[in-house]
Amino acid sequence: MTVPGLAAESPNGLGRMYRRSLSADPSVPSITTVIAQQPLDLDGWRSYMAARHLADHPELRTALDSPARIRQLVRTAVDASEEYARAAAQRGDRVHAFAEQLALRELGRAHQLAEARDLLRSHGEEGFAVSVERWWESFGVEPIAAEQTVWNTSLGYAGTLDLVARINGRICLVDYKTKGTTRDGRVKPPDEKVAMQLVAGMKAEESVLDPAAGEWEPWKYGEDPLLIAVAVGETEFAAVRVNPEVRRHHWVTFCGLRRVWEARVEVAAAGRTLLPLPPPPPPRVQLTSEPLPTTPPPSVETVGD
Questions:
Q1: What is 4-39+113-269's CATH number?
Q2: What is the mean pLDDT of residues 143-164?
Q3: Residue 29's pLDDT is what?
Q4: Residues 27-57 as b or e (16 or more Cβ within 10 Å = b)
Q5: Are 157 and 29 spatial neighbours (Cβ–Cβ below 8 Å)?
Q6: How many CB atoms lie within 10 A of CB 162?
Q7: What are the start and end residues of every segment in region (Disordered) (predicted)?
């Protein structure tokens, strides 16, 4: 089950970090924070959302003759693109919460599945809940653990897996990705970076037992699980698996990104990167003890010549 207290945002702006217990300080980065060290260009998407908002604005035609009004509309378009991103993240949280509550119900534990569905319905997002349920039914999911927090001491990272389950007799690590829908009603596929996220989860060494006391046990499900990403859309779901042949490459990349994160921490601790540089002082005039040479005035005779 989700343990929000084990994860916290780093005070130095270096991403999300995990702690060993609810009373300990955060000490290792999250899996997603490590992966975020890899450049990810969202400028194109944000630019498109801002441009679309501006093009659809009802006041655009009347504002064309007013540069000040155009600048104001551009500002609102930029704000709108940021709001789109926030709304998408919040929607993802609601869908993940529903999937977690569904797993808890199937595990025979206390759950709030009805409340999670009502929350999605209140935002006009119940289609996502239906897609999650269809995925469970189609694949015959047998849950083992939901929102399982795991830890790797050797490399130094932690994370939370959306679902550990048994499907067709095979242990599976599952990650949900809430995705939009194409014009023909198909859910968009997950991004390939989900493979690295799942591989890092597979390579965990421990899983949490008691977050308050800081009790952990050896990770039981990292030998050779099936790594599955499920794209959850309003109209359907799409499941993909990570090719076992590429796991090693994603793990090597993840290890490199972990070192990048650590280097950023060291740079931040060293102090300011760029320091002010004033111009050098003007050169000083050197004074000597000998008198300056003088030129004798010309004689009268020579002036007239």
A1: 3.90.320
A2: 98
A3: 97
A4: ebbbbbbbbbbeeeeeeeeeeebbeebbeee
A5: yes
A6: 24
A7: 273-305
